[in-house]
Amino acid sequence: MSIGGVPEPRPIAASAPSFDILTMSQPTPSVDPVTPVIGAEVRGVDLDHVTDADFRVIRDALMSRCVLFFRDQDISIASQKALGARFGELVAHPNDPGVDGHPEVMPIHADENSVRATGEQWHSDVSCDPRPPMGSILRMHTVPETGGDTLFSNMYAAYEALSERMRTLLDGLTAVHDGGPYYREVNRLIGRDDGGRAYPSAEHPVVRIHPATGRKALFVNQMFTQYIVGLPPAESGAILGFLFEHVGRPDFQCRFRWRPNSVAMWDNRCTQHHAIWDYWPATRSGYRVTIRGEAPA
User: Fold this and answer.
1) Do the beta carbons of residue 276 and residue 150 sit within 8 Å?
2) What count of other Cβ atoms lies within 10 Å of the Cβ of residue 125?
3) Average pLDDT, the chain
4) Who contacts 89 (Cβ-Cβ below 8 Å, separation ≥6)?
5) Mean pLDDT of all residues in 16-21
6) Are the C-beta atoms of 144 and 279 separated by less than 8 Å?
7) Which residues contact 15 (CB under 8 A, 6 or more apart)?
8) Would the pLDDT of 5 be above 80?
9) Does the annotation mark 123 as catalytic?
10) Catalytic residue among 123, 204, 274, 292
């Protein structure tokens, strides 16, 4: 399939109405939890042809399970963008260029010539932006035979597992998220000149309230969070160090093993993820779209 290409439609018999055949060909979607805490695999949905009913299932499942997985989705870039756009405005990445003609589509690629892979720390995508992403949708078309899994962690569960005293301490605190240190290091490693560009930086609540569910979630991450506002550096560092380790607890997690043409969709407001680069020199390649969110509160 060429970049941005749309698959040829299936022939439809002239003797039957097209909507009947489309309806009959699509099974009822199912949502099967991966763990009790996070994740679900969605079956019976063709992401090239998402009906309104399908979208309601996907949206509701995302709100309850935080991250969703879809198998055997050889979809076009246009369809991937269209699905993301149903949730909100798509945004380009602040450091990595998009696919030709599709600035909102970020290539995710590592192979035998790579010196790094994307997402090797626990993080929420581009949390340094004043309006961090609501969600991300990643399709991997090429994956290694083994390895290259992605871990996802539930930030509702991470917050709720803290002691009452720790929750009381964190509620009301804010932290500075800055993209500069991480993105400049990425550019140094791959030999890319960033031209001295400015990267997004913002102050966000340490504990945010999800705008759709009303639940509290931890919102600090190792990749972008620099310090807690109003605390001495030693105290800020000690608290953040504890929280960075805490969010990676196995009982908050699920682990996704990619297969060709798998899709993962996650809510950045209540999850973090960690991509494992254990497959060198094999190739892992795909495309991600990112949906603009709101200022955390």
Assistant:
1) yes
2) 27
3) 92
4) 291, 292
5) 34
6) yes
7) none
8) no
9) yes
10) 123
The domain segmentation of the chain, as residue ranges, is 27-292
Q: Output the pLDDT for position 15.
A: 32
Q: How far apart are the first and last CA of the chain?
A: 42
- Amino acid letter, 22: L
Q: Which of 65, 208, 288, 292 is catalytic?
A: 288
Query: What does the pLDDT look like over 73-132, one tens digit per residue?
Result: 999 999 999 999 999 999 999 999 999 999 999 999 999 999 999 999 999 999 999 999
Q: Is position 125 annotated as part of the catalytic site?
A: yes
Tokens 């990267």: give the residue: 199
Evaluate if residue 13 carries a pLDDT over 80.
no
Catalytic residue among 269, 273, 274, 284: 273
One-character DSSP codes across 201-252: EEEEESEEE-TTT--EEE---TTTEEEETTS-HHHHHHHHHHHHHHTT-GGG
49 given a catalytic annotation: no
Q: Kindly report, residue by residue over 217-234, the tens digit of the pLDDT.
A: 999 999 999 999 999 999
Catalytic residue among 46, 54, 125, 178: 125
> Which class is domain 27-292?
alpha beta
